[in-house]
Amino acid sequence: MSTPVIQTERLVLRAPRPEDLDNCVELLADYEVVKMLSRIPYPYDHEAGRSYLSLSVERWRNIEEADELGFHIDHDGQMIGAIGFKTLRETPKIGYWLGRPYWGRGFMSEAVAAAVAWLFRHTGHERLAGEAMTENAGSLKVLEKLGFRRVGEVGCTSVSRGATVPALRMEVTRTEFLNGH
Fold first, then answer.
1. Under DSSP, is residue 26 helix (H, G, I), strand (E, B) or coil?
2. Which of 29-38, 57-66, 138-147 has the lowest mean pLDDT?
3. Could you write out the DSSP letters of every residue in 41-55?
4. In which band, very low, low, confident or very high, does the pLDDT at 2 lie, cut at 50, 70 and 90?
5. Where are the domains of the chain?
6. Is CATH 3.90.1530.10 the classification given to domain 6-128?
7. Alpha helix (H) residue ranges in the chain
8. What share of the chain is helix, strand, coil (3-state, %, to 5)?
């Protein structure tokens, strides 16, 4: 499988590139974004960004062996956020973030819908999970809008907070998602 490029009405989802470094660092320098993410340190710096981008580029070079794959989200040629699938050898989990200047415009729902459709159409996975901190109403709304249903309460370890915070685990099946979209 070649590296996909997914186009939606307003967005392009594509593999991360090393030249995304400055945008990643700028957008993830915002604690309001990072505090809702599990694995992103704060403050986020160029060293963390280089490490993440290097791994992301390498994973797309060997898709069949990758346990994680990520997309960057572009709007008008500018990187505005990211979507990732982890635990691809099990029930995959989706994670995502969007730079604060782009909140409230429906970008994440549009991007997640496209990424989930890609996953179900190009892999054999029958189920996809997502976890969002209970205080993250925006992320929970994105999952609910796309047909994910609540399956339990979990603890989400937040690197930036140095703590585990309450979260909800949501899931959607291939059939549920493809029949709804």
1. helix
2. 57-66
3. -SS--HHHHHHHHHH
4. confident
5. 6-128
6. no
7. 21-27, 31-34, 46-61, 107-122, 137-145, 174-180
8. 40, 30, 30
